[in-house]
């Protein structure tokens, strides 16, 4: 009988792809949902999964969730589109939820936990050089989200040091793109959705290191399976790409704005536009990270970013998450 794997936050964007990857590789998969109301939708999308109710904000259900599992993949974590009013509104759930999962895993005899962190736990406060897994974000330079990811991952490593019987590996993805699995899109694909939806006069000059959610799912499985992955963190992200470059790639199939907006205009727009306020936080930043360790130790590979972007766009259109955009050929007519 195949090993049983628990995936937290089974209704999530990343979790859905991780679960598909595991089921495709012959694993038995149990997933957590915050409420029974979500179970039917998840079960319909991911046939073959067992679902249990467990909320990261409460202890109830976690002992049952990990029972009989060899592995736990902890993918669930808050990722808001706007900064919270108080940073602890984001930090406490991230830290406490991670520790809750780890405590249950240790008590339940789980062999290994793979935690989904972020390059946000690596790059804050560091500019102008290539960053690796040896780097950690400077808390003094962090806004709420990177601080939550940094503190949650630090807490996970501290817990693992105190519980050597529990193996820990961490995945640090960049901006996650790739196809959505249902008529529900997470925050990470909001930029692509905004481009397709129209109404933007141009594209802000933002830069991100991206990863396809399908490749990220494979990385989680490899970090779970590879003996030497225990005790390691792995950056999963490609070269930095700008939003104008993304727009030009999307323009091969869809009519989208491609003109780069000057930074001053984005800052001016932030006074009355929520998307612009989010964009301002990233102006002038360039994400330069190395995924060499994941390639070398996990034998992990990434697909071309153009394929990821177009597959993302196609899925958003297919599920009706954006008004049907005009095809590229119509723009040239």
Summarize the structure.
This protein has a domain at 4-184 and 209-240: 3-Layer(aba) Sandwich (Rossmann fold). The chain has helices at residues 13-24, 36-45, 62-66, 88-107, 120-123, 144-162, 190-197, 213-225, 243-250, 263-269, 274-280, 292-298, 305-318, 328-332, and strands at residues 4-7, 28-33, 50-53, 71-74, 112-116, 167-173, 175-177, 203-204, 207-212, 233-236, 240-242, 260-261. The longest helix is centred in the N-terminal third of the chain and has 20 residues, at 88-107.
Describe it for me?
It is built from 14 helices and 12 strands. The chain is α/β, with parallel strands linked by helices and 333 residues long. The chain has a domain of 213 residues: Rossmann fold (3-Layer(aba) Sandwich), CATH 3.40.50. A 7-stranded parallel beta sheet has the order 3-2-1-4-5-6-10, sandwiched between helices. It starts with a strand and ends with a helix.
State the CATH superfamily name of the domain at 4-184 and 209-240. Answer: NAD(P)-binding Rossmann-like Domain
Low-confidence stretches: none
Structural class: alpha/beta
What is the terminal-to-terminal distance?
58 Å
**Mean of all residue-level pLDDT scores:** 92
Radius of gyration: 20 Å
Number of helices: 14
CATH architectural name of the domain at 4-184 and 209-240? 3-Layer(aba) Sandwich
Q: Summarize the amount of helix as a percent range.
A: 40-55%
Assembly annotation: single chain
Helix/strand order, N-terminal first: EHEHEHEHEHHEEHEEHEEHEHHHHH
Name the descriptors.
Rossmann fold; seven-stranded parallel β-sheet; three-stranded mixed β-sheet; 42% helix
């Amino acid at each position: 009988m195949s090993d049983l794997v628990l995936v937290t936050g089974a209704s999530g964007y990343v979790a859905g792809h991780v679960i598909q990857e595991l089921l495709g590789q012959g694993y038995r998969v149990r997933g957590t949902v915050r409420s029974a109301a979500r179970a039917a939708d998840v079960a319909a999308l991911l046939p073959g999964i067992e679902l249990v109710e467990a909320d990261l904000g409460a202890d109830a259900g976690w002992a049952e969730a990990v029972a009989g599992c060899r592995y736990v993949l902890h993918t669930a974590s808050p990722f808001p589109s706007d900064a919270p009013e108080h940073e602890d509104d984001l930090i406490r759930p991230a830290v406490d939820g991670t520790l809750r999962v780890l405590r249950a895993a240790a008590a339940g005899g789980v062999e290994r936990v793979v935690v989904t962190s972020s390059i946000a736990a690596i790059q804050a406060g560091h500019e102008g050089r290539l960053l690796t897994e040896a780097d950690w974000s400077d808390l003094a330079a962090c806004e709420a989200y990177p601080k939550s990811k940094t503190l949650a991952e630090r807490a996970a490593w501290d817990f693992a040091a105190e519980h050597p019987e529990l193996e820990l590996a961490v995945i640090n993805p960049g901006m996650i793109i790739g196809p959505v699995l249902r008529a529900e899109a997470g925050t990470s694909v909001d930029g692509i959705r905004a481009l397709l939806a129209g109404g933007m006069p141009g594209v802000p000059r933002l830069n991100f290191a991206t990863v396809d959610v399908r490749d990220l799912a494979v990385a989680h499985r490899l970090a779970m399976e590879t003996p030497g992955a225990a005790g390691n963190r792995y950056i999963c992200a490609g070269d930095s790409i700008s939003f104008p470059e993304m727009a030009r790639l999307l323009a091969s199939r869809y009519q989208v704005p491609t003109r780069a907006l000057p930074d001053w205009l984005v800052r001016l727009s932030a006074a009355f536009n929520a998307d612009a306020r989010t964009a301002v936080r990233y102006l002038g930043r360039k994400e330069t990270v190395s995924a060499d360790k994941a390639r070398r130790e996990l034998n992990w590979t990434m697909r071309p970013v153009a394929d990821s972007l177009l597959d993302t766009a196609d899925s958003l259109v297919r599920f009706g998450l954006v008004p049907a955009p005009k095809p590229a050929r119509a723009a040239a007519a």
